[in-house]
Amino acid sequence: MKRLTLSLRLSLVFAVLLLVCCGLFAWVQMRATERHEQEVTQRLSAGLAAHIASTSELMTPGSGWRDEALRKLFDQLMAVNPNVEVYVLAPDGKIAAQAAPPGRMRRERVDLVPVRQFLAGAMLPILGDDPRSEDARKVFSAAPVKVNGRDVGYVYVVLTGEDRDAVAADVATGHVTRTALWSMLLVAVFGLLAGLVAFRVFTRPLRRLTAEVRRFEAGGMASLDEDLPNFAAVPTDAEDIATLRQAFMQMRQRIAQQWRELTALDQQRRELFANLSHDLRTPLTSLHGYLETLQLKAETLGPEERRRYLGNALDQSRKVGRLAQEMFELARLEYGVVQPEKEHFPLTDVVQDVLQKFALAAESRRQRLEADLAPDLPTVLADLGMIERVLTNLLDNAIRHTPQGSHITVQLRAKGGRVQVEVSDSGPGIPPELRNALFVRPLLGSGGAISRVGGGGFGLMIVQRILQLHGSQIQLLQRPGRGAVFMFELPA
Description:
- It is rod-shaped, with a radius of gyration of 53 Å.
- It is built from 14 helices and 14 strands.
- α9 packs parallel to α14 and α12 packs antiparallel against α14.
- 53% of the residues lie in helices and 15% in strands.
């Protein structure tokens, strides 16, 4: 069976609550009307029993109740006012005299507690026992009967007798009652219709949001490219639903943005594998060629040619090994296997050590390494080994990708509680078309060689990831008259 919508369920709940409230209101109204009628009746006839007791000789001293006089009095009173039923009670509440038709009496005694409350002037209405019913209680009037100043009983007058009950039951089915019930029904129906219309209007933003969620569920990722509605157009008459709708739209925007980022990362991964395959194929092909030549011409090659072929094969094998090592290192950094172990150390010492390590390589290419170190530099808080690897990668790239006779400078400056590091060279720099993706994927230059990202193109990616672990970023700066200028900062 199809589930009911929220709007329909709310409408049904409202209808049930409205009907229950109408029923409760009708019951409370009838009870209030009944209590009001009882109080009015009892208040108007409160002195009736006292009047009877004072104007009638109900008992003869020494001989008891005057039965014939009582019956005649009862008949006269009930003939004048059929609403009332008159009884004479003994001091203990036992019915001493009455004028009920044979077989109509259901009680032999009346509870005197309400009688005493009535005589004490308690708040009306006060209900007492109805002798002609086993459990009914009705409004009454009561007064003590005195003989020679002594209480000998009570006059007990039920103000709404059986005849009145019969007439009231007949009138209840009459025109007035039917009119009241029809009026109540019409009020309930119109209230229900008004409530349904109101719920329809109030839940309209929620139905829109439901439709958008279902469209997103059905369309999947393809629906992320659809134009999002303007948040300013959200109606202000349903603040909670508007807030929920805005939160959903913002969530959808975040999902769309994350999906685009994942798509871009997937594209970068594809390009990475393509570049990696290309860069691996070149040295492996050369290595295979040299080894195959050595095998086929082992008897005809001279010692000098053999050494040259073996040297070339070793160079290609080093390229493959370096590429594999960088891939492994980058993977460990990307997946969080390696975390920085930070300590305080002077960055100037690390720069001097790295420059000394590359002194011979730079000298062989007639390049000049310079250290521009500001005085009184503070120590930095970082992982010493990782920062040494960053400087090593940057200097290695600079040495291998700048022409002979150029100079390379490492500059350290204190700046706002941080130490700024610049590695620059006097080479041709990096082409503008390669700058945007320099730190996110390896780039192939002409002939399949990696441009400005030596060793398979992962060097700068490793630098970027290490600095990200330190809360920093590598930047490529534009400096007139300079080649490539890389800059990053470390906390002092």
